[in-house]
Design goal:
The protein has 2 domains: about 5-250, Alpha-Beta Barrel (TIM Barrel), CATH 3.20.20; about 260-340, Up-down Bundle (Four Helix Bundle (Hemerythrin (Met), subunit A)), CATH 1.20.120. Helix content is about 45%, strand content about 15%. The protein contains 16 helices and 8 strands.
Length: about 350
């Protein structure tokens, strides 16, 4: 498969759904850096959405677009109702979570445990496709517990394909539902990129997005020779600045990537507006923590954000002041370097 073929896929580069991380503020922050990356919400549990209403769970800025809404559920009817709300709220895709291994998710009968029920997942997909005009996709694992052969995975994919699903995102490791915590299930079962690549060969008309352990642009580009898209989770949160390079390196756009200070200033303008609307500084500060990761001053930056800005009542001035802490630390670093070289 040539890299050129996937240049037209809207799923070429995606930022993974992550509970308590990929909220609307993080998505806004990511969008400042990349106009092209496809963003995903945190998982929204269907019943909660239908109970509390769209405002609580679906509010977001049009600046974030394109954003996919990830739903958790296993009842075809309620999923269809939730999908309708998602489309009306402006999301570009409805994604069904069939990959999350947490106990809470298991007891609600959604997430990764649904891999054992391909027909139910197919019914859910069919039900949502019947009521929305945006793509309905599935995010899954390569297997669960002892249901982990390639044939079982291929049958699962065939079932959702028959129901009309044309895009799958596959976390390239199985999940052990008994015995491993969600965190361990993101680290211990080995990554099997070969399995995901085989699926792409066996289902050539399916858009296959690979996920798990991808943490650089070079690795992204390498995967794009074999699959249609790459989804990145933790690296997008822990080292977000590389997102500024995505439009140029992965999408071939010519605009120069933004520098950290410009990204910060643009986010600051957004934060000022959000503060006026009553959003807490704590929430707004969270996406910024790792902007300077790996740079001189990164520690001072994080300390200032968590000690000064995250306090209740901290205003925009204290946030704006963060940049001066990095500048001071960088200058101190340069002075120290100067002192060493002039010895
Ligand atoms: C803190 C955290 C929360 C997550 N929440 C979700 C979620 O809501 N829905 C989902 O499908 N996956 C969730 N995941 C899994 C990620 O989407 C992704 O599949 C996983 O982290 C592997 O990708 P990575 O190695 O690039 O991080 C979460 C992962 C983390 C670290």
């Amino acid at each position: 498969m040539s890299f050129e073929n996937v240049k037209s896929s809207p799923w070429r580069f995606c930022i993974a759904p992550m509970m308590q991380y990929t909220d609307r503020h993080f998505r806004y922050f990511a969008r400042i850096m990349s106009s092209e990356a496809r963003l995903y919400t945190e998982m929204v549990v269907c019943d909660a959405l239908l109970h509390a209403g769209p405002e609580r769970y679906l509010t977001h800025s049009t600046f974030e677009t394109p954003v996919a809404l990830q739903l958790g559920g296993s009842d075809p009817l309620t999923l269809a109702q939730a999908a309708i709300l998602g489309e009306a709220a402006g999301f570009c895709e409805i994604n069904l979570n069939v990959g999350c291994p947490s106990d809470r998710v298991k007891s609600g009968k959604f997430g990764a445990c649904l891999m054992a029920e391909p027909q139910l997942v197919a019914d859910c997909v069919r039900s949502m496709i019947g009521v929305v005009n945006i793509p309905v996709t599935v995010k899954t694992r390569i297997g669960i517990d002892r249901t982990d052969s390639y044939d079982e995975l291929a049958s699962f994919i065939q079932a959702i394909h028959d129901a009309g699903c044309r895009v799958v995102i596959i976390h390239a490791r199985k999940a052990w539902l008994d015995g491993l915590s969600p965190k361990e299930n993101r680290e211990i079962p080995p990554l099997r990129y070969d399995v995901v690549r085989q699926l792409k060969r066996d289902f050539p008309d399916l858009t296959v997005v690979i996920n798990g352990g991808v943490d650089s642009i070079a690795a992204t580009i390498d995967h794009l020779h074999f699959v249609d898209g790459v989804m990145i989770g933790r690296a997008a949160y822990n080292t977000p600045f590389f997102l500024a390079e995505i439009d140029r390196s992965v999408f071939g756009l010519t605009a120069r990537p933004l520098d950290r200070e410009t990204i910060f200033k643009r986010y600051l303008a957004y934060a000022a507006h959000e503060l006026e609307k009553g959003t807490s500084t704590r929430e707004l500060v969270k996406p910024l923590h790792y902007l300077y990761q790996g740079q001189p001053g990164a520690r001072q930056w994080r300390r200032h954000l968590s000690e000064r800005c995250a306090k209740t009542g901290a205003g925009i001035d204290s946030l704006a002041d963060s940049i001066r802490h990095v500048e001071r630390a960088v200058n101190a670093d340069h002075d120290a370097l100067g002192a060493v070289t002039t010895l």
